[in-house]
Amino acid sequence: MNRRNSIILVLIIILFALAISEVLVRNAPSIQGGNPGNNTLGMRLGLDLSGGTRLVYEARLGNETPTAEDIQSAINIITKRVDAYGVSEATVQKLGSDQIVVQLPGVRDVEAAIALIGTTAQLEYKEVLYDSSGNPILDSNGNYQWIPATAVDSNGKEVALTGQYLKRNAKVIFAQNTNAPEVAFEFNSEGATLFSQITGRLVGKPLGIFLDNQLISSPTVKQQIGASGVIENIPLKEANNLAILLNAGALPVSLNGPIERMTVDPTLGADSIRKSLVAGMVGIILVIAFMVLYYRLPGALASVALIIYGILMLALFKLIPVTLTLPGIAGFILSIGMAVDANVLIFERLKEELRSGRNLSVAVETGFNRAWPAIRDSNITTIIACIILYWIGSALAEPRMMGFALTLGIGVALSMFSAITITRTFMRLLVGTNVAGNLPLFGISKSAQTSNAKEQE
Amino acid sequence: MLDFVSKRKWFFLLSGLIIIAGIIVLSISRLNLGIEFSSGTTMTMVFESHVEQGDLRTSLADLGHSNAIIQRSAQDAFLVQGLALSPQQDERDQQEAQLADNLQAKFNTTVRIAEFGSEGNTTAGNASLGNVTLGNETLGNVTSGNTTLALIFGKPIAPSDLSSELANLGYTGATFNQTTLDSYLVRTRSVSTQEKAQIQQALEQKFGPMSYLDFATISPEVSAQRVKYNIYAIIAAAVAILLYMAWAFRKLASPFRYGTCAIVALLHDVLIMLAVFAIFRIEVNSMFIIAILTIIGFGVNNVIVVFDRLRESKVVESRFDLATRVNMGITETITRSINTSLTVLFTLFALYAFGGSTIHNFVLALIVGVIASTYSSLFIAGQLLVSWEQGDFGKLFSWLPIRRQQS
């Protein structure tokens, strides 16, 4: 046994052990909405496996095109909203130039999420318009006419009081006597100056609180107040959501949509994982059976390499980490089939060399060297296809494409390592042992060998 | 040595016929594009009471969806009443999610829950905060007493098993009966969130309680963008492969021929995949594009393995002409090509049989592609090189009244 090969063998064993511990022991951050059983081996799961909803919105700013900063700030605000809503591992990304894609794993009440994300949440304080004799002016429907409540700010300018002056600490409280939910808000110092001027002016009169031009509360001002106030008469759930919206701030753009909406039921995702595991197992067993039956001893060694390859892949998925999607799993299972290709190429060359009468040591080296250009070029072209797939996948914020490209690409790259390093080391270790001369173990009958050897001469 | 080259016109003819059949089908009925590429909405509706397909069609037409495609199916389900559920929609959703997860863990299958009969749980946009409705119902408007849940399992479940499992989970006092629900898959133009609620309201007035099991929508802008990017991707992949192969075969005469013949072989594979999907009217979606790009990567593998032998034998056995060398190359690699394709097909068949219906069409596309690309690497790519060198294509058009320049 050659010293160098033994060292490589030990390294492979250590690597394999590390990979197994990575896959089985270390727990990646949990992703799941609801069912921890879905979270197979602590892998990061895409929406199609964890279940959840994907929403795409179009950002609009009147007639203007929103700037990149507008979009980024909208993304930050939406992120705060969905975080506060309690969605773990939600992603909010820019898509194209003016679209925003929101992915919500595990969320089932999609309508509520849509309402929360799509609301502009512009909070405004308004007062009623009065005629010269002090009576409120009513419109044709008999409603008050509301105008923005303004006051003089520290720069001496007259400005309207809006949600931008709020501290981001609005919260739901319960009224002492009625126990009804209320949203308590607090202004920053500039807002407090404005608010006290306005409430001072409006004692005994209604103050309108508007969210996106809808009146949500119109309390009558009892006395001049400074920094804080409450919005009353709100059902608990709306109160919770209003607090989330006020704290995240108003969107700098209006959101049109969702222009794309897809939902995967979480139990469907879990079912897919279960089925893919079965399919993967059956696939590996079929491939191993074929390899052993057709290529005999080298096939068995390649199968061992294949199992090492599978575990290394899973460990890489967790380390990188790769978001596992259904096409991603399919890509992984497909890469098992393709990983065998490098071995098949090598073994076919090996057989050719053995048939022409070379001894195992020479045949192994020549077989590997001759197979290498084809393995290299074919794998590089596959990797090129994967890079392009990943590129469109990210341009479309489409995790299914990215997941597939990533798993297949990593798989092809790793399969070169598995075929060249692992299988070759195994084969080299055979050289010099007493199986080396036993050609039937390599799938070659004795007679074929001698006749071919004669032909060569 | 087997002769793959001299009969090449028959191989070209066979592939040509399949592709022409596909093109004819494509020109008559076009591809069955999924909403990802054609835009629109797909939704699955289940009704508590029996609904005739014709009545649903009429109602949808009245709502402005006269072009809707409607497919009926029957769902085996359990209608459960008397569960202790929260009157608030969001809490109830969580309870239902919990129930679905528990039942799934127990029965190892998909569990879909549809909610029927809660007055008012469907009227979005009219809650106390105007359009600031943050859920889709007004507080206190829903009572749990008249909520019926439909449990739809992915496989048959015995009523006694369900009964004991519900008791295990602590749902006492629940009654259920096994039934068959009318389920309709509707595909139509893009439906907004507001319109979705309006459709439900209108249908419930006519047919009684209804629930959406699935709802997916894509606007025309989004789908157009997808189509554009996918076409870019396929062109980019083809160009990148052409350039890489020209580089990899740079030591041979006219290296661009190798890349070009590989691209033609890949085009052949993709056309066969399209033809099969067109002939059998299988839906083409993003997953199909993933399959195409995979087959481009896989197919070029196969072609390179054959061409690699030409690269090698060019040096070793240059006394042979190209036709002979192509024949030798294919003969030497046919075992490898078939074995590799077989191992890939084994995994694909396993995926097809056990991987679940979600990826059936995707795996089917890959199976067709693997077979096509194995065929084209053995019978098309190398033969094209020979035809190119021997000027077959010029001869093919020699009957045209164009005077070819004598060289």
Q: Quote the average pLDDT of chain B.
A: 81
- Measured as a percent range, the helix fraction of chain B is 55-70%
What global shape of chain A is seen?
rod-shaped
Q: Which range does the strand content of chain A fall in? A: 15-25%
CATH architecture field of the largest domain in chain B: Up-down Bundle
Based on secondary structure, the structural category of chain B is alpha+beta
Oligomer: heterodimer
Low-confidence sequence ranges of chain A: 28-38, 452-457
User: What is the CATH homologous superfamily assignment of the largest domain in chain A?
Assistant: Multidrug efflux transporter AcrB transmembrane domain
Binned strand content of chain B? 5-15%
SS class of chain A: alpha+beta
Extended strand count of chain B: 6
Report helical residue fraction of chain A.
40-55%
Q: What distance separates the N and C termini of chain B?
A: 35 Å
Q: Counting H and I runs of at least 4 residues, what is the number of helices of chain B?
A: 13
- The neighbouring-strand order within the major sheet of chain A is 3-4-2-14
End-to-end gap of chain A: 32 Å
SSE layout and pairings?
The complex is a heterodimer of chains A (457) and B (407).
Chain A: H1 3-24, E1 44-45, H2 47-50, E2 52-60, H3 68-85, E3 91-95, E4 99-105, H4 110-118, E5 123-128, E6 146-148, E7 150-152, E8 158-160, E9 171-174, E10 181-186, H5 189-201, E11 207-211, E12 214-217, E13 228-231, H6 236-248, E14 254-264, H7 266-319, E15 323-324, H8 326-355, H9 360-395, H10 399-430, H11 446-456
Parallel strand pairs in A: 1-15
Antiparallel strand pairs in A: 2-4, 2-14, 3-4, 5-6, 5-11, 7-8, 9-10, 10-13, 11-12
Helix pairs in contact in A: 1-7, 1-10, 3-6, 7-8, 7-10, 8-9, 8-10, 9-10
Chain B: H1 8-29, H2 35-38, E1 40-47, H3 53-62, E2 69-81, H4 89-107, E3 111-116, E4 148-153, H5 159-168, E5 175-188, H6 193-207, E6 210-218, H7 220-248, H8 256-279, H9 286-316, H10 322-354, H11 360-379, H12 381-390, H13 392-396
Antiparallel strand pairs in B: 1-5, 1-6, 2-4, 2-5, 3-4
Helix pairs in contact in B: 1-8, 7-8, 7-9, 8-9, 8-11, 8-12, 9-10, 9-11, 10-11, 10-12
